[in-house]
Amino acid sequence: MDEGEEIESANESAPLLRSTDQRNWIGQRNTDLRENSAEWEAIGASGALAPSASQVSLESDYDGDDLIGRFDDPSRKAPRSGSQGSLVTILSLWTTMMGSSLLVMPWAVAEAGLALGVVLIFVMGGLAFFPTTLIYKAAHYLESTLKVPVVEFQDICSRILGPKVAVVALLVSLLNLIGAMVVYWILMSTMLYQIGCFIYENKYPAPGNITDPSVIPDETGLFFKYWNEMLTVPFYLVFLVLPVICIKKPTFFTKLSSFGIVSIIFMVIFVITKIMTWGFHVKETNLDFKLVNIHFPSLTGTLSMGFFIHNCILGMTVHHSRPQYKARDTGIAFLMTAISYAIVGGGYYAAFPNSKDLIADNFLKNFSNREVLAFVARCLLLFQLYTVFPLLAYLFRMQLFYAIFGKVEVSYHFVVILNALCVGTCLIFAALYPRIGDILRILGSICGLVYVFTLPLLLDLVVSARTGRKSHLRNAVYVFLIGLGLANFIAQFIIPLHV
């Protein structure tokens, strides 16, 4: 391909760069996203102008055979001031991926069976990790050809796949954020409810740690009339949460949210101590113990959310001191997450001393309100959820307002109205259907289909075609993976909901 053909190809592949105004828009968008990258890092989501298309060479600047995320400029390989190292990156990705999915994992493994469940955890982890390398590859392609730092996955989709695909990516990202807020609200309601019960019931003797949550506590007294997990406590949260999410920039919570790693580590240690205390109860003669269960799509849907970090992976690694190690560190984080899920999910299921059918979709609900270690875990988790929720609300309105108005800062009235609508949605689910297992698996299958099994693969196909590296084998493999994502999504509506 000669220079003229390269220029024409660049113009066709980057039509949005033909005017100065559009180049300025991209630069401004990257500046806005860079300013808000701390929020992505906290929960786990550069302003140079792009060159003209005549300065872009698709093949001379980009080498598809390079390692993912590696740049030939030696200055990019040296640690940069204010950047984060591999350990911080790995821990940030690890804690971000787990989150609320850790609480659901024992229930999800019970839905799949012990043997099949553990295998699926590592298989889904590998399947979810692979697309992140393709996202890094696509970002490298744009940065090396357009000279524009990319910190937003939706920008990549818009530049390579077109604005219509970027709209789909935005809608699914917004769905993911509002779904996360719903799950967080349900969990905060449950944690607050059980903490209140601990304070109220602590003076009464408890027959044991493991209880059937449908039987106790006795909710006939006056206290439980006004302290109800579904009918009152979720509404009490409005007075605690609504004021803080109306703060225009919740930068204070980005510092507190880093405390989440303490909560995650404590819950993992808590489960390990319970496993060691209980021992394993895995008699195949018991009808409720299963090595394989036909409801395994509940686990694959949950894992699609449990390993979902693809929409903010670029923002969370944008400050990596050595970009050539992004893929390696991401792989380590995915492996750590899979091991954690296997320990908490598989270990808890195998050691649970009562009927496996009693495992709740929030494993902390299987412990008595008077269990001290469970009380500490609930307090830590409530604090973590309370500090992260404002960031979720902020990211939701930031993406929505930017899509509608082209800017993040809008009239405060819009902020209040949007927050009220979000809180109202959370209250509806918390009061009528607080089943986080079903919510996570269905939401995870949607996000997984779009962000894990489809968009990154389509990006790589387009990039490979533009750089002359087409492969029929790659096409066949990608079609198969997209089919897996679609089958995972459809399966969520075949297995029954839990009522």
TrEMBL record:
Transmembrane segments: 86-108, 114-136, 165-187, 230-247, 259-280, 300-319, 331-352, 372-396, 408-433, 439-463, 475-495
UniProt keyword list: Amino-acid transport, Disulfide bond, Endosome, Glycoprotein, Lysosome, Membrane, Metal-binding, Sodium, Transmembrane, Transmembrane helix, Transport
Protein name per the record: Sodium-coupled neutral amino acid transporter 9-like protein
Native source species: Hypsibius exemplaris (Freshwater tardigrade)
One of the record's GO molecular function terms: L-amino acid transmembrane transporter activity
Assigned protein family: Belongs to the amino acid/polyamine transporter 2 family. SLC38A9 subfamily.
InterPro entries: AA_transpt_TM
PANTHER family, per database record: AMINO ACID TRANSPORTER, NEUTRAL AMINO ACID TRANSPORTER 9
Cellular component aspect of the GO annotation: late endosome membrane; lysosomal membrane
Membrane topology term: Multi-pass membrane protein
Region (Disordered): 1-21
All copies of domain Amino acid transporter transmembrane, residue ranges: 89-486
